[in-house]
Write a structure and sequence with these properties.
Elements lengths: L1 H10 L3 H41 L6 H33 L4 E7 L5 E7 L3 E3 L2 E6 L7 H5 L3 E7 L2 E16 L2 E7 L4 H11 L15 H7 L7 E2 L8 H15 L9 E4 L3 H7 L2 H4 L6 E3 L1 H9 L4 E2 L11 H9 L3 H17 L6 E3 L2 E3 L1 H10 L5 H19 L9 H9 L7 H12 L12 E2 L1 H14 L10 E4 L7 H10 L4 E4 L1
Parallel strand pairs: 2-4, 8-16, 9-10, 9-15, 11-14, 15-16
Antiparallel strand pairs: 1-2, 1-6, 3-4, 5-6, 6-7, 12-13
Helix pairs in contact: 2-3, 6-7, 14-15, 16-17, 17-18
């Protein structure tokens, strides 16, 4: 070990960094040992408590049994947290940090040494390593070279200067290289990182994030972000690091289950699967456009999977697919929707025994609810008629239930289903040949999202109450319809499109 340290002191130009790393490693070892002891102690408590409850189950009164069950759950939670801390410490031990900045606040003599890593490390109430996501100090590493620098703090903007900036590669707790950073060093570090990556899985790039990329990752002002760049420019990686930042920044409001990635295929999902766990976050729920269509169209209509254009010689299929991918097709659908919202529903007097809701009242309510899907409007009108009848029923007539009223209103629709409306749309275009059902009650893939778009306007789509952030990868490869549909599926979310 001494020989290895001596070799490093000869190759690393900053001996103080080797000494600092040795100090950090010792403190990490102490924390790991302490946490491991805590895990063993909690495990011992859990086993004993469980055994006590088993041995004396017949003798414990309900109140005591309830208290013991609560204690057992608390021990279980404590143990799970201790294991999580231990796992995090082991990851830190492998590579504690990748950068150091020295910041001198304006009009102050003290220079603060700030080490930045994947995770923060607190030892004996001293913060020794800052998480790369921690605002705002860690951001200075990405945003400034040595010289004037500043960051926003709760008390206001703190101005000063970066007097030193270094980057490191630490592997298995050993310092492999240290570089004095400048504008050009980032590229040197990136070259080393890329040359060292043999896995086909995507890796964390936190040590090589550039200033503009950092601004995208930490942007908290824009609800919708489009990350544009040439192939291989790191768009997907930046989107994933942005997710990691948001989960860290809004940990009390946002969790991994609130974020969904729409990815092209399972192969892509496997490719990106390691990035967020590597950054200390849970894996994100992944969906494909086909998955979402299956959820939305269950019990409504079936559909074929997409075909590979290179594997089919059906020129008519290719023509239909191209046509449904055009903006013209989208615009015509919007015109059609505008027309049917005025003509599809023909209000008439709703009469139930001696009670009457005039056609004019029904028509007025129908257009008052025009922000809702057509069938949802009818539900709301049925409720309005019910309340109208109950409030004006001075003679004590029997009042129909809203469900009965809704049945009467549905009879005022010229067409009763989305598939009937969709077929009619092609007749309206005078292009009936563009709509083909490959099998009974089965859509071609190119019809799936146009159909869903129409279904959203007619009946409405299932809304997600869970998803708050959406990432769509390779957005340029998709037709406009899926994006339009997501506004109905996730109406209240902040969407992050790549």
């Amino acid at each position: 070990m001494n020989t290895q340290n001596n070799q490093h002191k000869q190759t690393i130009p900053f001996p103080d960094e080797i000494i600092h790393l040795e100090t950090i490693n010792k403190k990490l070892d102490l924390s790991i040992a302490e946490t491991n002891s805590r895990v063993e102690r909690v495990n011992y408590e859990y086993i004993n408590s469980k055994k006590y409850m088993t041995d004396y189950r017949g003798e414990l009164d309900p109140h005591e049994m309830f208290q013991n069950e609560l204690a057992l759950k608390q021990i279980d939670r404590t143990g799970a947290f201790a294991v999580e801390v231990w796992d995090k410490l082991m990851k830190i031990k492998e590579s504690p940090y990748f950068a150091r900045i020295d910041f001198q606040e304006k009009d102050e003599q003290l220079i603060e040494k700030i080490y930045i890593g994947r995770f923060s490390f607190l030892h004996e109430n001293e913060l020794l390593i800052y998480d790369w996501r921690s605002p705002p100090i860690a951001s200075m590493f990405y945003d400034y070279e040595t010289g004037p620098a500043k960051y926003d703090a709760p008390i206001g903007q703190i101005e000063g200067a970066l007097t030193l900036k270094r980057q490191f590669k630490i592997k298995n707790g050993i310092l492999e290289y240290a570089l004095e950073s400048s504008i050009n060093i980032q590229d040197d570090v990136l070259q080393r990182v890329l040359s060292d990556t043999s896995s086909e899985k995507m890796k964390s790039i936190i040590s090589t994030i550039q200033k503009k990329q950092n601004q995208i990752i930490r942007n908290e002002k824009n609800n919708t972000i489009i990350i544009q760049g040439v192939a291989g420019s790191g768009k997907t990686s930046i989107a994933l690091h942005r997710i990691a930042f948001l989960l860290y920044r809004f940990k009390n409001k946002l969790s991994a289950r609130n974020i969904t990635i729409i990815s092209p295929n399972k192969v892509f999902g496997d490719y990106i699967s390691t990035v967020l766990p590597e950054l200390g976050e849970e894996p994100i729920y992944e969906l494909s456009f086909e998955n979402i269509a299956q959820i939305q169209l269950e019990d409504i209509i079936q559909f074929e999977s997409d075909k590979d254009p290179l594997e089919t010689k059906d020129i008519h299929w290719a023509k239909r697919t191209r046509f449904k991918s055009t903006l013209y097709f989208v615009k015509q659908m919007n015109v059609y929707l505008s027309e049917i919202s005025k003509t599809l529903f023909v209000p008439k007097d709703y009469i139930y025994d001696e009670l009457i809701a005039p056609a004019d009242f029904i028509k007025e309510r129908f257009f008052a609810y025009q922000s809702y899907p057509i069938k949802k409007r009818l539900q709301l009108i049925a409720d309005d008629i019910y309340h109208r009848f109950t409030s004006r029923n001075t003679m004590g007539y029997k009042v129909p239930r809203p469900r009965t009223i809704l049945s009467g209103l549905n009879k005022m629709l010229k067409m009763k289903s989305t598939i009937a409306l969709y077929k009619e749309f092609y007749k309206w275009l005078d292009l009936s040949e563009m709509f083909v059902l490959p099998a009974k009650k089965t859509l071609e893939w190119s019809d799936v999202y146009p159909f869903l778009y129409l279904h959203a306007a007619f009946e409405g789509l299932q809304e997600s109450q869970l998803i708050k952030h959406l990432v769509i990868d390779e957005m340029q490869d998709y037709t406009p319809y899926p994006i339009c549909c997501y506004q109905s599926i996730i109406p209240m979310s902040k969407n992050y499109f790549r």
